[in-house]
Amino acid sequence: MPEPLLAVRDLHAWYGESHILHGVAFDVRPGEVVTLLGRNGAGKSTTLKAIMGIVRRRTGSVRLAGDELIALPSNVIARRGIAFCPEERGIFASLNVEENLVLPPVVKPGGLGVGAIFELFPNLKERLRSQGTKLSGGEQQMLAIGRILRTGARLLLLDEPTEGLAPVIVQQIGRTIERLKGDGFTILLVEQNFHFAATVADRHYVVEHGRVVDMIPNAALAASMDRLHEYLGV
Question: Measured between alpha carbons, how far is 11 from 25 in angstroms, rounded to an integer?
Answer without folding.
Answer: 7
